[in-house]
Amino acid sequence: MPENHSPDDRAIIARDLVKVYPGRGRKPGVRALDGLGFSVPAGRVFGLLGPNGAGKSTATKILTTLSRPTSGSAVVAGHDVVTDPAAVRAAIGYVSQGASTDPLLTARENLEIAARLRGVAPGESRARAARLLDEFGLAEASRRPVGTFSGGMRRRLDVAAALVHRPRVLFLDEPTTGLDPEARATMWAEIRRLSGEEALSVVLTTHYMEEADRLADELLLVNRGRAVVQGTPDELKAALHGDSLRVSLVEPDPAAVRAAIARVPGLRDVVVEASGVDGILAARTDDASAAVGAVIGALDAAGIRFGQVAASHPTLDDVYLHFVGHTFGPSTDSATGATAAPTTGVAA
Amino acid sequence: MTTIALTTAPARAGWFTQAGQVLRRWLISTLRQVWGPVMSLIQPVIWIGLFGAVFSALGDLPPFGGAGYIDYLVPGILMMTVLYSGAWAGTGYIDDIDSGVMDQYLTSPVSRSAIITGQLTQQLIINLAQSFVVLGIGWLAGARYPGGFGGMLVALGVATLLATIFCCASTAVALTARSQIALISLSQLIVLPATFLSTTMMPADLMPQWVQDVARWNPMTWAVELGRGGLDGAYPAHGWWQAGGLTVLAALAFLWAVRSIRAYQRSV
Fold first, then answer.
1. A197 and A247: one domain?
2. How many domains does chain B have?
3. CA dihedral defined by A324, A22, B109, B176, rounded to 10 degrees?
4. What tens digit of pLDDT does each residue of B187-224 get?
5. How many structural domains comprise chain A?
6. What ipTM is given for this predicted complex?
């Protein structure tokens, strides 16, 4: 196992993590992690991307020692999460999906207590709290009870509270879920700023494609408790040759759509999804300009109604569709379930 | 890169610092929401007024030795207040579990027993304040404490032991059930029989035999009789046994609470 000053510059090494939540009564058990393994380079922002229920939060809970794996092992900041949780806890900060501060206490009191609890000396705790409040734009509100804060302010305070002891690894579990666009933009700026700090590794879970694309230096796609693919956003996009083509469908019959475009040459990775009255046809092609005309012609000929047709360079959305859509087959049901949530998270 | 982090790696806080900071958090929130403990004082006022008036004729019966019922009642109300107040102690943990604050505690290098001790100390401080007020209300209602200052300290000490038992038990149930409704229903289920199957309001001689048998082994009886002994200066015959029993129960309840917080983490 690597020591503190590990020559192996990895913030996290996870091997074969399995987590099974036992069933209660007639409810069957849930296999939240199914052999998840990955490693995280130190000093960067690492994104765990996947749909709701993919196992991102469970992985975070195990890596932060909140939860114990059913089997498998993980080393965080040089310490084993199962055999030496105390050392891991001293080295990490954790922003869970819930709150981490007491609503009746002021921002300053919350930060000072958080620092003292983690072994920071009294004077240093006050100084550190003041500096963090300043950095996170909360200095003016520092003497107000946290219960009066807006969602965005509270979230920033949660992040500040996770940094009071200068952790080496910071875990952010869906840090912008539930925030309005402005608060989300502010949080992104904070995370980018943190990623510039040396010696801090950030592990970010998200189901927003755009968030992962903007913040993560390296990404791991997770689905159904397993690692799907890992790489930098650019690497992942580059793995998809050519352009991506998207057609929004109106009241589609997936089988008819597939049959219609089966005759169009040069299309790969064809995915047809239907959700309610809307649907989408996504495909990859090396020659977008030729494909657009051919697809429109084929759909028209088959009498299929459609709306917008767009061709673009690959986005993480496409990466997602490519890997997750393929892994679990072209069946409409599974593809819809897997991609519906992230699709809504993508802005233009 | 990693070497920079190493030089700033924090030392772990000592156990007393940890418990102290947990206490600090709970005390600040108590002061900002002081109506809770204040409201819980209305109950003993009503009990002393109500029971004192309704049962005042009991004071003429021989078992009271002519001292009057109010002197008999006040130590009982003192322990009842402790019981009712202590039974709520676990609600703070359920709030913390629901909000996510508990996850913060569990992922920071803080000793589980320090978490329990910090919150317990806050509860005991509130309890002590309430006990002082109950003794004051009793005095105003006409009760006298011939046991003197030392006797009052004994009564307050016993109240603190009883509070420890019930606060810790409430904490353990809260961390196991994780539902306010379950915790409160269970408390109601226990608190009322515990009070009436003891000598809180009625001397043993006036109760049916089976109630006497139950009351003898009821920790509430031990606490009430010791408190009564302290306040009037005449301790019960089995006082040391009763004090010992309360101490053992307090220690067991504390261990139960600490075990429950660990069991909670294992279940996450």
1. no
2. 1
3. 140
4. 888 888 888 889 888 888 888 899 888 888 999 999 99
5. 2
6. 0.87
